[in-house]
Amino acid sequence: MALQAGIVGLPNVGKSTLFNALTAAGAESANYPFCTIEPNVGIVPVPDPRLERIHALIESQKILPAVVEIVDIAGLVRGASKGEGLGNKFLGHIRNTDAILQVVRCFDDPDVTHVDGSVDPLRDIDTIATELIYADLESVERRIDRFTRSAKGGDKAAVLHLSVAQRLYALLAEGKPARAGTWTDEEALSVKDAQLISSKPVLYVCNVDEAGLHHENDYVARVRAHAATDGAEVVVLCAKIEAELSELEPAERAEFLADMGIDEPGLAKLARTVYHLLGLQTYFTAGPKEIRAWTIRQGWTAPKAAGVIHTDFERGFIRAEVYTIADLETYKNEAGLKAAGKLRLEGKEYVVQDGDVMHFRFNV
Q1: What does the radius of gyration of the chain's CA atoms come to, in whole angstroms?
Q2: Per-residue pLDDT tens digits for 80-110
Q3: What are the residues whose beta carbons fall under 8 Å from the beta carbon of 245, sequence distance 6 or more?
Q4: Which of 287, 292, 297 is nearest to 353 (CA)?
Q5: pTM score of the predicted model
């Protein structure tokens, strides 16, 4: 699944440093062929200790983690919604992503100039939110014009779309993002059809200095308080340290982390948070050639999950053989699982659970 998160931020907040560290981490990920899809798109592995738990009992040539695609969006400036800077290009790129990662500066450094002259993370958040809302207002205005004409003719779908668009306009005019609205299932489909930028889930990435990794500073506390009202998530990391870590060999990296008193790189936490922000989950396949994490949306049935491997698997789906990692650890191998009745046969209606290990039977 190629779902993307767009990384945005004002100038000099550490966005480019973080993106470079992310793509360096992807490039060196063991057994995963890193690639840059475009100059500004990187594939980043999602660390998952369950892969090693499976590998401890099933010998395999390769281990392939799940991944997320991170898009480095051109830096935003005030007036982007009116075409300032790379405004239109910026808005086009971000409209095509599935979630927004906003890097927010949460550190003081007299040598790093802030575009607005002082450090204020909530002002930075508001600057970007305002530009996205302005862009969405224009989109919704066009949508209202479009459906007003067809709604007059009695088209029921048009009446629904018009009603939702008018409520969206009122919400945006109050300075609130589209995701702040409450919608029925039918209305939510109309909101999705509108493809509004401010309807996308948001993750605030607080870029702190080294001290900020050990003691939460006031800047981060303010971002957390804002995120709680915005329904957004927060990850705290130091882009400068992540960049340094990305240049080290694995053994040196472990030593560096230990010296810093950090359990894991901030990028690992970021990748996992993005994965869940996008509403994704993982199932595994395991055999002598590879143990692999496959990405699906929550709630997918077995045939649809099989289709991620190959469309033939979905089209010709017969059944899935499913077991849990915990049962594998108890019974040691698939023969033991079968003998204990722990290798389940599931049909087309089975909803795949996060962490399932699966084999698919199909016939095309």
Answers
A1: 23
A2: 556 554 455 667 778 889 999 999 999 999 9
A3: 21, 253, 256, 257, 265, 267
A4: 297
A5: 0.88
